[in-house]
Amino acid sequence: MAIRVMLVDDQELLRTGFRMVLAAQPDMEVVAEAGDGAQALEILRSTGVDVVLMDVRMPRLDGVEATRRICAQPAAPKVLILTTFDLDEYAFSGLKAGASGFMLKDVPPGELLAAIRSVHSGDAVVAPSTTRRLLDRFSPMLPSGTAEPQHKDVAKLTEREREVMLLVAQGLSNGEIAGRLVLSEATVKTHVGRILTKLGLRDRVQVVVLAYETGLVRAGGGAG
Fold first, then answer.
1. Mean pLDDT across the chain
2. Which end of the chain has fewer CB atoms at under 10 Å, N or C?
């Protein structure tokens, strides 16, 4: 079955460009378009969508608040934030709101298509290097945290899972974590899956945000 994509952007020309790229893919279908967040929410009430490509700066209802409302719904589609400027405050806010990742609007078509497929399969599309830069820039906006994590479910993690979580939060990929802990990538992936389940998180992007908010990781990437 084709991946059902919704385009949300107040610039019709951009939507047209994205639509043309997606329409050429045998495994993708643009099933809906919206010019702002409010219209997107209205359309989603009656249209089945797998992945939403979401602009952030739009009239009426911006992409961050629209993402928050979409991701709060049961069986919500995945949201991929599209931003004009790398690492702006909207990108970070969008990730906190539940987006599975973000990309620049001028991303090469091949990378955009790969991102849509990754998000649809359940992966995040914020590269580890970008995660590090993102948190280095925006961690001062987060609560300072305390020595003890505020999120009660963190206590459910095993010692190894907590270790993996800290490395995920520092922006390491599964391969890098495997090398650091002398584990197989498959084992690391299993640990990450269990962490997401125990903490009720959608993807590793939310692991990063949670670790910083609870003080498990400090600004600059060190453990708290």
1. 82
2. N
**What would the two tokens of residue 40 be?**
């997107």
> Which residue carries 């084992």 as its tokens?
187
| Residue 182 token pair | 């002398």
Residue with tokens 């270790």: 163
pLDDT band at 138 (very low <50, low <70, confident <90, very high): low
* Model pLDDT for residues 34-58, shown as the tens digit of each residue: 999 999 999 999 999 999 999 988 9
Within 13 Å of residue 151, how many CA atoms lie on the same side as its CB?
20
Runs of H (alpha helix) within 56-169: 63-71, 89-96, 109-121, 128-138, 159-169
d(CA 98, CA 129): 20
Stated pTM of the model: 0.70
Mean pLDDT over residues 148-160, rounded? 74
Length of the chain: 224
The kind and range of the H/E element at 102 are: strand 101-104
Quickly state the pLDDT bin for 149 (edges 50, 70, 90): very low
Q: Which two tokens stand for residue 145?
A: 């945290």
Amino acid letter, 222 = G
Which of 63-99 are b and which e, b meaning 16 or more Cβ less than 10 Å from the residue's Cβ?
Answer: bbbbbbbbbeeeebbbbbbbbeeebbebbbbbbbbbb
Strand order in the sheet with 78-83: 28-34, 3-8, 51-55, 78-83, 101-104
